[in-house]
Amino acid sequence: MVMKTFRENVWVAVAITLIRIYVGWQWLHAGWGKLTNGFDAGGFLKGAIAKPVADHATNAVIFPNYTGFLEHFALPNVKLINFLIPVGEFLIGLGLIVGGLTLTAALFGMMLNFLFLFAGTVSTNPWLLLLGMIIFLAGTNAGRFGLDAVLRPLFRKVRTKIKGDKTTAHVGG
Question: pTM, whole model, 2 decimals?
């Protein structure tokens, strides 16, 4: 009953919209700053590899697979990372602010927050992750006051048409 209210209530949608715009602004601002001021993840990646997240008692690396990913994929492809991070942050922010593909933007935002946390960067990541989860849990109610309100019926029409075409083709042929 609580989740039904959370996902359908108009006042919850208003509150989620305010949260969504705040989180969107944080992502948009971070991405824009990187796009306009230049961004090089090389130093960050080298630092995350050299000093991975480790258990304080045993000094054992907690996320060895992630450290391996950074060392063997991200760092050798730092030019790709230098493009994807700022553009991704900017698009996540834009999607959340306008309420377009809201759940997709929230999901990718949460993924980036987790990736930054796995690399040992706390900063605002736990806060944005929590707010991203709240947005994501609201489901379609998160985009009720945004571009999703226009896009959702169009997607439904396309999906119905595709399903109808498949059913018609299968029955007739």
Answer: 0.89
Taking only the tens place, the pLDDT of each residue in 38-67 is: 999 999 999 999 999 999 999 999 999 999
Task: Name the one residue in this structure whose structure tokens are 């040992």.
Answer: 120
| Residue with the two structure tokens 């949460």 | 110
Distance CA 101, CA 75 (A): 30
Nearest Cα to Cα of residue 94 among 17, 24, 8, 149 = 24
